[in-house]
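so my prof wants the structure for this chain in the tokens format not the other one, which i didnt know existed until like an hour ago. anyway here's the sequence
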Amino acid sequence: MQNFRKSTFLGLCLIFLMTTVSFTSQVRSFLTLPTQQRIPVGEQVRLDLDFPNEIMEKLSLDVRTETDGVLKIDGSEMISEKVLGFSQTWPVAIQPGKVKLNLKLFGIIPLRQMTVNVVAQNKVYPGGQSIGVMLQAQGVSIVGYSPVKGHDDRNHFPAKEAGVEIGDQIISINGVQVATDKEAARVIDKAGDSKLPVEMILKRNDRKIEVSIAPEYCKETERYRIGLFIRDSAAGVGTLTFFEPNSKTYGALGHVIIDAETNKQIDLGHGKVVSAAVHGIQQGKKGQPGEKIGIFQEKGIRGNIEKNTTVGIFGEMSKIPENPYFDSPLPVALVNQIQPGSATVYTVVDGNKIERFSIEIERVMPYNRIEGKGMVIRINDPKLLSITGGIIQGMSGSPIVQNGKLVGAVTHVFINDPTRGYAVPAEWMLNETESITKTRTISKIDPGFLHISRNS
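here's what i got, hopefully its the right format
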């Protein structure tokens, strides 16, 4: 029994020691080395380790390129493979390609293998302008139930009783594809007047569902209805993040536009962005998000909306939006180049004037791409805090610049602390523009969000 207790104690001590050691900055610098990394042309290929000099002297790095001409070291092109000590000059990437790194101890024992993809340096014009967003859904969405007062003076819910759910999307009614709430109301009334059922095809969680509904005549509206609130569009104010001059593609908002009632992503039919002016601010407070109050303007920014994604909306603009702070494009930082520390955000809090404010990047989360929340930020600028109280609706998409690079955009606020929130890395947003430029078809330019609903 005594031996068992002794061995248990020693085991617990060993676990404690290993846990303590694993959380030292030296060990963390090694454990957090990525196996896959991207760097732009012009940057050094290097490893930053926090070990004492005695250990660093025993480490070496085998650097191998798949093709010649990718790296340059000490002014000369590096051919094929080279072994580097940590006291030597690091190679510089001079053109896109792939680099294999092998970290070794005593030149023999492999510790970590890594792949570095050298990519072209992308440059964009940072935004900061307030924009009005008008989004037309693909089909019409069901956002609520609406009672139909029948001849018996009772409330009826024909669609609900037939199995229609909030969040469903109407694809067609009696074989007619409907794109607006007015079209849906017209087809339903026509079917009821002809004493025909409403045969409806719905989209629910990527599944198609067919339902048959008997429309009810409504005494209040004097037409046939099936008892639904439906909506075909959304509109609101946000912020432009960047403009890519070669493809004339913009990115904005930094997050997906969702239906406020159903909390689901709006399937894009078509949409556009226009200039907006801020004429009021509702300050953010703990538990109560603030908001920019804006109005759409006829002159200025004009663009279409081609994608509504988890990292923002994207489309085409005909010209570079004016920005007093940037007369030339800035490099887009890769996620691994973003550092915790001070940065600057650009946004509008009065009229159309873009202003810059200080913020702190508190944390970088490079593996959180699905949710688009790659950074935690904190507003620390006294002027911005006095005006907005922190991050508010309408600031979504406001560009963040650090060390001369566009690093990301403001996206979400922490409800319990409006001075803090999330941001999305600019690299993730820029990646979404690549598919647009490949598949873009020429289209003529003719979201807090305001919601437009109609009874049907």
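also thought this was worth mentioning. The domain at 147-226 is CATH 2.30.42.10 (Pdz3 Domain).
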